[in-house]
Amino acid sequence: xxxxxxAVEWVNAAFRAQKDAPDQKDAHAxxxxxxxxxxxxxxxxxxxxxxxxxxxxxxxVLREVESVKQEASFLKEQMQLVKEDIKxxxxxxxxxxxxxxxxxxxxxxxxxxxxF
Length: 116
Known about the structure:
It is built from three helices and two strands; from the N terminus they run H-H-H-E-E. By secondary structure, the protein is mainly α. A two-stranded antiparallel ribbon has the order 1-2. The longest helix is centred in the middle third of the chain and has 66 residues, at 25-90.
């Protein structure tokens, strides 16, 4: 609903816009009331349908939330395992300056290979 809506002003404007004879104000008012009742029924029907759809979707949403929760728990466990593996490996790391040294192969005698 519009925050600036003024019901009294709306009713007065509806009566000012009346093209019927001024002596038929009661009939015009009855017509306006009937129209408003029809609009209220439409809004109620729309709200009922929307509410019913929302209620029908709740079980599916709950299943999806549970699935995401399980996936998050699994991911947390996997990340914990990776973290533990990193800790294990970090104790076995070779200093960086040895990682980039290429071994050199030298052939001295026929059939002999030396690796430096």
